[in-house]
Amino acid sequence: MQKKPVARPVETPADISAELEKAHEHLRKAVTLNQGTAAYQYALAQAEFLAGNFSASADAAERSLQADPANYDALLLLAETLLRLKRYADTWTASMQAIKLDKYREDAWMLAARSAAEAGEGDKAIQCLELFLKVNKDQLVGPLPYILLARTYLDTGQPQTALEQVEQALAKMRSFYIAPGPYFLALRAQVLRHLKQPVEALEYYRQALQMSPQDPALHNELGEAVLEQNKPLDALRSFRQAVELDPNSALYHYNAGTAARRAAVSQAGMTKQTDSLPQQAVELLLRATDLNPVVAKYWYELALAYKGINNYREMKLALQQAIAQSTVFTDAEAPQVGYMRLYAWACQRLGDFDSARETLKSILAILPNDHITLNDMGELSYKLGNFKAAFNYFRKAETIANDHPRYLANLSRAMVKLDRPEEARELVEEAARIDPKDYYVRFQLGAVLLDAGQADQALEHLQEAASKEPDNAEFRYYLGRAYLNTGHISEAIHHYLEAVNGAPLKHQWQAELGEIYLREHAYVPALEHLRLAAQLEPGEPVYRYNLAIAQASNGDLQAALYTLREALRTFGDFAGAEWYYLEGKLLTENGRLDEALESFVRANHMEPGNPDYKVDLAKVLRLKGAPVDRVRPLLDEALTEDPESLRAYEELAYTLEQSNQDEAAVQTLEARINEVLSKV
Length: 680
What we know:
Layout: H1 13-31, H2 38-50, H3 54-67, H4 72-84, H5 88-101, H6 106-118, H7 122-135, H8 144-155, H9 159-175, H10 182-194, H11 198-211, H12 216-228, H13 232-245, H14 250-266, H15 272-275, H16 277-291, H17 296-308, H18 312-325, H19 335-349, H20 353-366, H21 371-383, H22 387-401, H23 405-417, H24 421-434, H25 439-451, H26 455-468, H27 473-485, H28 489-502, H29 507-519, H30 523-536, H31 541-553, H32 557-570, H33 577-589, H34 593-606, H35 611-623, H36 628-641, H37 646-658, H38 662-679
């Protein structure tokens, strides 16, 4: 398993210069000594160590110990050097020899514990540190053993015990008047992350970064903590800071790319800035694979990023690399199996069904009872129209998985194609009973609830389904409907857009989206989607009616009137009162009052109880100079139907004013204003 970098002090040019000066000092000391002496070899070992020549340092330290095997400092230097060379067993041996010389000194014990921990022997490291504390129970011990214990307990999956050691270390720091440094704070944050205390963990990371703002590892750890809280956009900022500070880290680019990809999914379509996230993800992950091309998961994540921009050809190539760099699988849980399944999916998107089939078959050749791959083979067979083969694959997958709801649902799909509808229905109902939390089953459940008018209950199920399969246009459509019915208009528009982008030929979805925009007074996009709906399904009269409204709302009255009248000629028997009312409104705006009057009369005749129709009929009569005794009865009827109709009051005032009844007009408006004020 690849280890993540831990937060560490950042070397500055001044630090490096100081180290080199120390190295020169030891070399100057060495040249004054006899080369055959232990002192000379020890001084040489120190110089080589400070210069970063660890192999040479180890050789010199061993020669020093040959002449003076009881030199504790030489053993300590040898152990430190061997640790840098990742010779963990040799480090342990050298440390133990030093401990035999002086069991009360801390440094050799710490080196021994570090060598065991880095070799993956956490239990051995813990035993070493606990033995040190037992041996030195009557001695003054600093915080370092407790810090190492905390880290080792954390690495061995014991975060609660790790937290106890962190508290012990903090107590020791206080007793020694030592202020906690950034890397201790980072360790505490790591422990809290494992204990599912994210708020506290983030606060300690921020404190650590205030103390060491130029440490890329700290920025990276903060990003990981934020990403765990499903805040990929915020995490991306931290990862980008890490990348800027250390542009040659493959891990930091990988984490930044992963965050960008996840943010692209959750923030899709929100702003122009977030629209660039999918491409950012690709670029960051490409850089990660350039810096370290042998890590399979980097290629896999790159493939997912390419999937996000629908570049299936590059996705396929990235998956080829992920498969090549991963360990050959022996069980279904191996990462390579997942890479191969996704590779088969990418092949299908490219129309390369033969490669998809051969890839899935190669998995089944080694894992014949892998139910996931059997289900995938069923999906492929179903897509190719081989429903009998699909049924057999689905049935075998379901038999192995034992009442798997998704496989039951797939079986039902195949049964429908094989003309077995009753069995198909029973299987879908059984799938819902077994696991209503399966996202595909939850989608079906959500769709049923939505159609039954229970949008609030449907919303949660549809959200879950869409989050699991964001590219599924049908999922997005139903989720958009649920948001619309619960009054969340912006979310509804977002998911409707995703739906029509995924399935642009769905005329009903286009029309519904156009209607939403129309209600929200977003007339330009409303016109776009309603026109497309009418083009896709010219035989649907409602699309033409709404298109006319959108054209009028965009100021194109002539086009709106033409669209409406064409629809009336085609669908005259279908047209309701609202069609003639709209025609009257359009004709009035065009100054064609005689035709408008005819349309309003017809609308009022078809729906005599509508107050709006009466008000507009009265308005046209007034504009044509009709006497007040002909206009006023219509307005009185409108006010009877709707006593709070402001339009009726206004029109009544205009009518009275036009008939030189100014005082009566003023009284009418005052009465309406007083009525409104009394309610306020």
